[in-house]
Structure of DUF5678 domain-containing protein:
Amino acid sequence: MVRKVSSNYDFFVKTSTSKYKGEWLAIADKKIIAHGKKADEVYKAASKKTKSKNISLAKAPNAQMLVLSFRL
């Protein structure tokens, strides 16, 4: 079974989030559209800023992270 990777996830993995350390990020259409300390508030703010139904939430790491991707 092959899974399609979300374009928002792909954007998150490839984008520097160093200026958002420890914050929640709302991503839609390959852009960070809201950020903050509380996930629910970030999602609400993002919902008001976009008509996209595909909003992804991700937490920016406090330090560097390593993301490994592989296919089975």
About this structure: The mean pLDDT is 85. The two ends are 9 Å apart (CA to CA).
